[in-house]
Structure prediction request, 735 residues.
Amino acid sequence: MTKDDQLQATVAFAEINKRADSQPGLIKKINAVIVFDVTKDGKIQKSWTIDGKQGTLYEGKPKEGTTAQVTITVDDNDFVDLASGKANAPSLFAKGKLKVKGNVMLAQKLSTLFKEQSKL
Amino acid sequence: MAALKPLLDAECGTTNPLIKLSQFYTRDNTLVTQDGLIKPATNNFTSANLTGGSNATIDELVNEYHRPISAPNTFHLEGLLTGLRLADDNVDNTNKHEYEWTTQFLDSFTNDFSSHSANMPNKNNNFSSSVIHPPTNHQIQAPPHIINDFNIQQHSQWMPWNEQSYIPQSTSFTLNSNSNFLDQQSSTIDAGFDNDTVKAAQNILSLLQETQFAADTEFKDFVEHVAVGNGEESTVDANKQQATGDAKDVTVDKWINEFSNELSNESQWQTDWTSAAANLSSLDDQIPRSQSWLRHLMDNGDSYSEYKFAKTNTFLEHSNPFEEGLKRLEAHDIVNAVLLFEAAVQKQSNHVDAWLYLGITQSENEQDGPAICALRKCVELDPKNLQAYITLSSCYANELLTNEALDSLRKWLANNDKYSHLLSNRRPQTTTDEPRLIDELAFEELQELFLQAVSLSNNPSDIDSDLQVCLGVLFHLPGDYDKAAECFNTAVLAKPNDALLWNKLGAALANGGQSEKAVDAYYHALTLSPGFVRARYNLGISCFNLSAYKQAVEHFLTALKQQSDGIGPQGTHVQMSENIWRTLAIAIGHLQRPDLEQSVINKDLTKLLDEFHIE
Prediction:
């Protein structure tokens, strides 16, 4: 069985980028550098960096001079659930399906990337 | 195990199986109201599935806190602690609820680990799915000292690092009967702890050694075991607990003492904190967080410092715009109210209430940016304006400005005569002007303070709905949507005709994934205030989340129409909310109507209204 190079996360991130494009400032609102390590079969396959300070989202580890404030490790399938709004980060976290290193409250802001937030 | 399936299958947050528990709960001797009665629900919001403990929902909430909350990783420390505590208390046999709850959440864990079961329906897959969630029709009066329990386990599961430095400090359990729970093997965690767990265990062990834990306790042995790396099959399942009672009095008093000792031992605490923070390697930004927060605030300060008025405002010549604005607000004509309040402040720039109402109304109008501007002006003029602070906190929360939201909440507390003494009772605090080192410190401190404030109320029927709102906003910040919803629910029970509260309730439910209940709440809000643009927008979002795209589009268009109606004859689209347009675009995308996309880009509202038959 050859390794499937196309992670579902790739598609998901493309969607997120689209959403971000339609809402300038969305990524900046997160105001933190968050790195996603997406795993498959237990191994990290790819990483994405959400640079809230610059307002960019790109594949790969943070660029030179940028440090991640939060690193999230999650399986490809779970990430897709997360990104589609089917699951939310805190619940995945509680189940141990999502590991967070760093400032968790910053990570919470990610939810705005994945689904429309209802307003208090 | 099988008997617990009903508990598991129905997600926390639904009430069915847990209603059974409530029977136990209400019989709990330690949890009666002051006059010895459990007050029945006086308000009937069954249509909204929001029945409830009119008086004591927050107490349930508080009660919930003292229970250990689900651990974030494989090391179920808090489960262990629950087990320990339960093992201790032999006082009250009617508190089966406690271990049943414990069982429930522990089982939900272990189920996940052992079977990755699909028992957690995604609909309610929210933050506290693994957390014991009290049914909303409880009426319990928690004794005030329970709040102190909370302090011990206040770190929600969303803050893993806290466990390692906090928990053992404040406990003085006697672990005489923990052998009971350690023996329970009915469900197991995955054998083999990973490195994180081992490290966590090691941390705990070292802290244990500093605390008053009895020297030779099985708990300590257990932790040592884990620290050494034995992948031990252990259980956290307190299922067959002998001890059921939740004495609270004895143990809690100890905890109160512990905690106050801890409080006075700030340096130790800070050391633990910073060492724990240091453990989070490779996370530190080059810029210390304190400064980055400041800088962020300064950056934001620029965008919120000047209010941008509508370019054309037919009310500028009105003789008494403020009064008229209030009337319009009363009549639920939000959009015109905004214009009137704008006129009022342009006439008289130091009119505190005009700025206040402008802020509140803009927020209802789904325009948090201008709302924040206006409210900031208000507090500049009147630094003790509680309503402004509370509204600011929700606006900041919506804009993800966590630190600012926390700051506003703190200011609300500090300027509130009922509760400001709580702040002065605390150990010397850095003033709010100083930037917080980390979000979490401020958050936890505020949590504690607000819970203390809640406990101040001796009379269970006396709900301070503003306080509940603050607490709700506070919980909303780290994503604790269930707790937030509980708070807003309580607030709404105290003020059932306040559309804003219903909207907040809906938003918390929606963000927590409970879209149907959210829709219900929004309908309440809109029935009370049909011109409530934000509630309608939120309703659209919930329809969207439920995949009802056409309805979502209809709601968005209605909201936009309401906004555009408020503009004078020249009507530009400046006043319409960008958020709504944006979400409308996404919803239309889902409708597979490429022909409409151009209309959306052009913001051709008329055409769209026509297309969807909205008059």
Summary: Chain B has 30 helices and no strands. Chain B touches chain A through 67 residues (CB under 8 Å). Residues 524-614 of chain B form a domain with the Serine Threonine Protein Phosphatase 5, Tetratricopeptide repeat fold (CATH 1.25.40). Residues 379 and 385 of chain B are 6 Å apart (CA to CA).
